[in-house]
Amino acid sequence: MKYRKIAALVLAMGMAVSMMMGCGASKPADSEGDTSASGSQSFTTVNEGVLTMATNAQFPPYEYYDGQEIVGIDAEIAKAVADKLGLELKIEDMEFNSIIGSVQSNKVDMGLAGMTVTDERKQSVNFTEPYATGIQSIIGQSDFKTTADRYCHARDSSKQKAVQDLNQLLTSN
């Protein structure tokens, strides 16, 4: 638990810097802007004094419900960012596919939900540096592993055929 908190704090600092640099609204030249509790110049949020985060709270340990409260690694990171910026944190649970649209339409300030960075998504929203990576794998009986590995590690032009063959293998029994 202590390691998670330290990791969350380190990641939050990086995210806070990224947010201040990439997500801030520009202010008129004669405006001094508000300052957060940390003393740095603030940026515009959807609701004044509140950092609103969108997530899909169905993926422990990153985000999930503990009673009525959304908790997890992403919630801890968001809380550390909000604290650093002197803001209150509000977490909104929504369908995963609604998160980018909610950021784009200024319904929320940010989304934390295990979102993979893709070229398509980078055209819609700004990403911080990744803070976690995942590796997916197939599970099965011991004799299944060799067959699945052959298909999963197919290269280049044979990859599409390999996926089709694996799909056929999985559905034939």
Any idea of the CATH topology of the largest domain?
D-Maltodextrin-Binding Protein, domain 2
How many separate domains? 2
**Helix/strand class:** alpha/beta
Strand content: 5-15%
Question: Globular, elongated, flat, extended or rod-shaped: what is the shape?
Answer: elongated
Q: Report low-confidence residues grouped into runs of 5 or more.
A: 5-39
Q: Indicate the CATH architecture of the largest domain.
A: 3-Layer(aba) Sandwich
The largest beta-sheet arranges its strands as 4-1-5
Q: How much helix, percentage-wise, in residues?
A: 25-40%
**What Rg is obtained from the alpha carbons, in whole angstroms?**
21 Å
Q: CA-to-CA gap between the ends?
A: 44 Å
Q: Treating each run of at least 4 consecutive H or I residues as one helix, how many helices? A: 6
Q: Could you name the CATH class of the largest domain?
A: Alpha Beta
Number of strands: 5
Major pleated sheet: 3 strands, parallel
Pattern of helices and strands: HEEEHEHEHHH
CATH homologous superfamily title of the largest domain = Periplasmic binding protein-like II
**What's the mean pLDDT score?**
75
Walk me through this protein's architecture.
This protein is α/β, with parallel strands linked by helices and 173 residues long. It folds into 2 domains: 2-122, Periplasmic binding protein-like II (D-Maltodextrin-Binding Protein, domain 2, 3-Layer(aba) Sandwich); 142-171, no CATH class. 40% of the residues lie in helices and 12% in strands. The chain contains 6 helices and 5 strands. It has helices at residues 2-22, 73-85, 99-104, 119-122, 142-152, 158-171, and strands at 50-55, 64-66, 69-71, 88-93, 110-111. The strands form 2 sheets. Strands 4-1-5 form a 3-stranded parallel β-sheet. Strand 2 (64-66) and strand 3 (69-71) form a beta hairpin. Helix 1 (2-22) packs across helix 2 (73-85) and helix 5 runs antiparallel to helix 6. The longest helix is centred in the N-terminal third of the chain and has 21 residues, at 2-22.
